[in-house]
Amino acid sequence: MRLIADRLGGKRGGETVFSDVSFALGQGDGLIVTGPNGAGKSTLLRTVAGLLPTGAGAIRFEAAGADFPTLASACHYLGHENGMKKALTVSENLAFWQEFLGSPHLPVIDALEMVGLDTIGHLPFGYLSTGQKRRIAIARLLVSYRPVWLLDEPTAGLDKHSEIQFIALMKAHLEDGGIIIAATHLPLGLDEVKELRLGLT
Amino acid sequence: MLALYLRDVRLGIRAGGGALTGILFFLAVVATIPFGVGPDLNLLGRIGPAILWIGALLASLLGLDRLFQADREDGSLDLLMLAGDRHMPALTVFVKCLAHWTACVLPLVIATPLLGLFMNIEPIGIGAAAVTLLVGTPAITFIGAAGAAVTVALPRGGLMVSVLVLPLVIPVLIFGVSASYGAVADPDPFLPPFLILCALTLFLAVIGPVAAALALESGVD
C-alpha cells in the first residue's frame, strides 16, 4: 500500500492555497503537516481525502488488497467537526458509524476504553465537554478499520494525558502498517515520521 | 444503510427533531381555514381535500432544509460522502429521504383523517385524501432533497428550499387533489390521476436522490 502525492496543488474558493507538494508514504509511514494559519493544512487533507478537487498534480493510491481499492474507501477523515449527533448517546453515535463505515475493528465499548471514556457511553453526546467530544471522535477511528488516517488538528481541546494516550494510539496504528497524515501545530512526539512544512505563498 | 435510516428516524423523533413542528403547522393551517371561510359546511366539504393537500405540502416542506444542513454542520456529511465507494451517495440520500419521510411526513398522513373531520369531508373523501397523501408525499420529500442539497451551504436556506421546490411539486399537488376529488365527485375518475401520482413518486424517487447526490458532491468545500 502506497500513497503518493505528485506536485499536488490545492485550491479553495478559486485561490491557490498551496502548490508543488510531493510526498510518498508507504506502510507504517506518518506525515506531520505543519505551517501557520491559512497555509493550507486543512485544504491539503481534504484534497487528499477527495473532498476537494485537486488544483494541480495528482494523488495516487496503490492498494494493498481488494478490501480498500480506492483512497476514499481506505481512509478515516477526522476533520474540525466531530461528526457526531448531540441528541444521540455516545454509544449510539459510535455504533452507527461502525455499522455505516463497515470493516468493524474494535467493539464500541473497547474503543471507548482506549480513549479512557468507557463510563460515559450512555450519555447524550451533547452533554460532553470539548475534549471529551474530541476523544469520542478519536474512538470512531477505532471502531472501524481503515489503513489511512487523515487527521486535522486531532488534539484540539485534548488535555496532556489524553494527548499522550492519542499519540500511543497513532504509534500502534503505524506499527500495524497504517498510514497517518496529521495536520497539527503541536509536537506530536512521534519519531520516525516525516514532516511537511507548508508556508504562506 | 439500515443504521442510517434508524439514526435519522431517531433524530427526527427526539427533541429538536422537528417531527412535531410539522404536525402542529399542519394542524394550524387546516384549523384556521374554517374560521376564514366561514361556517358553510358544503363549501368546506368541497374545498376540504385541496386544503388538506396544501396544508400537508407546506408542512412537509418545513423541515426539509435541515435534511443535509444538520449533517453538514457537525461534519457527518463529509463522512457520508467519503463513504461513497461503500454506499452510493444517491442511495445514502434516498435512505435519508425515507427516514425524513417516516419521522416528519408520515405523522401528517396519519393526522389527515382527524383534520378531514374539521373540513366536513365525507368518509370516503377522507380515505381518498389520506391514501393520496400516503403515496404523494414521498415525491415531495424526494424533490425537496434536491432543493435541500443545493442550498445546503446557505445559512438561512429554509425559505430558499421552499421557493425552489414549490414549482416542482405543483404536478404532485394537481394529481393528488384531482384523485381525492375523483373519489367523491361522481363523473371524475379516481384511478387515472392516482396512478399518475404513483408514477410521479416512483419517477422522483430516482431523479431526486441522484440530483441531490450530485449537488452535494460538487458542493463540498
TrEMBL record, chain A:
Q: Which EC number(s) does the record attach to this protein?
A: 3.6.3.41
InterPro entries for the chain: AAA+_ATPase, ABC_transporter-like_ATP-bd, ABC_transptr_haem_export_CcmA, P-loop_NTPase
**ABC transporter domain span:** 3-201
Q: Name one Pfam family in it.
A: ABC_tran
Q: Which UniProt keywords apply?
A: ATP-binding, Cytochrome c-type biogenesis, Hydrolase, Membrane, Nucleotide-binding, Translocase, Transport
Under PROSITE patterns, the record lists: ABC_TRANSPORTER_2
- Residue ranges of the TM segments: none
Which Gene Ontology molecular function entries are recorded, alphabetically?
A: ATP binding; ATP hydrolysis activity; transmembrane transporter activity
* Statement: the UniProt record of this protein carries the keyword Transport: yes
Swiss-Prot/TrEMBL GO biological process terms:
cytochrome complex assembly
Which superkingdom does the taxonomy of this entry point to? Answer: Bacteria
- NCBIfam families under this entry? ccmA (TIGR01189)
What the entry lists under PANTHER family is as follows:
ABC TRANSPORTER I FAMILY MEMBER 1 (PTHR43499)
Q: What is this protein called?
A: Heme ABC exporter ATP-binding protein CcmA
The organism encoding this protein is Borborobacter arsenicus
Q: Which gene encodes it?
A: ccmA
Automatic annotation (TrEMBL), chain B:
Q: Record's superkingdom?
A: Bacteria
Gene Ontology cellular-component terms listed: plasma membrane
Q: How does it sit in the membrane?
A: Multi-pass membrane protein
> Which keywords are on file for this protein?
Cell inner membrane, Cell membrane, Cytochrome c-type biogenesis, Membrane, Transmembrane, Transmembrane helix, Transport
A Pfam family annotated for this UniProt entry = CcmB
Q: Transmembrane segments in this chain: where?
A: 12-37, 43-64, 98-118, 124-154, 161-184, 190-216
InterPro entries reported for this sequence: Cyt_c_biogenesis_CcmB, Cyt_c_CcmB_bac
According to its UniProt record, where is this protein located?
Cell inner membrane
Give GO terms for biological process. Answer: cytochrome c biosynthetic process; cytochrome complex assembly
Q: Which GO terms label this protein's molecular function in UniProt?
A: heme transmembrane transporter activity
User: Hey, which family's this protein in?
Assistant: Belongs to the CcmB/CycW/HelB family.
NCBIfam families for the chain: ccmB
Q: Which PANTHER family match?
A: CYTOCHROME C BIOGENESIS B-RELATED, HEME EXPORTER PROTEIN B
- Purpose of the protein: Required for the export of heme to the periplasm for the biogenesis of c-type cytochromes.
Identification of the protein by name: Heme exporter protein B
Organism of derivation: Borborobacter arsenicus
Q: What gene name does this entry carry?
A: ccmB
